[in-house]
Amino acid sequence: MSHVDSGIANLAPLEQAREQKAWYWYDWANSAYTTTIGTVFFGPYFINLAENAVGGEDGRFEVAGFSLPPDSLFFWLITLSTILSALVLPPLGAYADRVANKKRLLAILAWTGSFFAALIFFATGDNWLLAAVGIVLGNLFFGAAGVVNDSILPLISDEDDRDRVSSRGWAFGYLGGGLLLVLNLGVYLGHEAIGLDEGLAARLCMLSAAVWWAGFTFIPYLRLNDHPPVEVAHVEGNALRRSFGQLAETLRDMRKYPMALTFLIAYLFFNDGIQTVIASASVFGAEELGHSQTVLIATILMVQFVAFGGALVFGRLAGRLGAKRTILIGLVIWMVIVTVGLVIPAGNVPFFLALGAAIGVVLGGTQALARSYFSLLIPRGKEAEYFSFYHAMDRGTSWFGTATFGIVLAVTDSYRPAIFALIAFFVIGGLLLTRVDTERGIREAGNDVPRVI
Question: For the domain 23-444, what is the CATH code?
Fold first, then answer.
């Protein structure tokens, strides 16, 4: 005799899958800003504006009693944006946890960031100040939207499929950012054939990234659901005052989640190593190994598309081994990469491309799994707040790796020991990660323990 359920079929898994697909599109949207503006075009274009303002590369800026060359001004701007992020993101996270319509908050932050990014298009001649405003506030709102986006991950995925969802989102991001970068490099390298001067071509490429970011953000905005706040402690006052009150409460309560804190410190080290390798790879390839701009551009593109596959592979591997073990495997590969940098022969293009491919394999995977692993260690109702610390501490300490790289370079006058010195960040980060008791951390946070940890 057949059994017929009296209730309505459970459509929650289908709805959850639909939300996950919508969420992937924000990674697709915002990665264009990182690749086209942050990685390739803004730095050289801004330095050119700054040099125009002081009469050439030998000119100096006088800022607060300091005499700065034009090219160093760019790095000070990035430092300023990271400091602002470290100050702004934690109270924003506390506020976001008290908002049901997180998709609207995500969209507002993203559209505001894309507006400031678009301002760079109008910075011409010697107008470096407008470009500076564009990049500092663009970076700030990029980070703010990232906090809200990451906090949505635990709301649309169960503990068992968190790694898969995070990895797919990250992979989708690399694919989107890579596709737009291919188009933009085609426009930039062929600017004469289509009747554009070099500066206008660069500005159009950066404008396209701002439009891409804003346009594709409409997909998660329209397709994600509202998720009412849960288990948020009562604090008096309006939403803004409550957010600062909740922030103070969380700072006091963080001692209840020692595994989350241990992972945060581990992440600061190994992520700083990753970011410094990425930031210095082009300079290392050009100055130490003597590769042409064409080889460097080809390598950047290859890394984007290899990272797409790498994130998916790491997501599958985490399904078998657990996220912690898979991240540790990734950190060992990062150690091998910086060690190879010590001995890789100059001028050998295949070796350099192979090194780029290795970076691509672990780049997306380690970062995607770090996001999903951390989400298991944080309490319900405080997702955005904890992810704001995740982003703010990352940004606030992101100069450790570059400072180490710069000091070793200054002492040795060689990029090889400078890149190898970053192995310390992967070793320390890995050792700290081994100290995280995953099951204990998940239970302390009140989350369900996945089948594979």
Answer: 1.20.1250.20
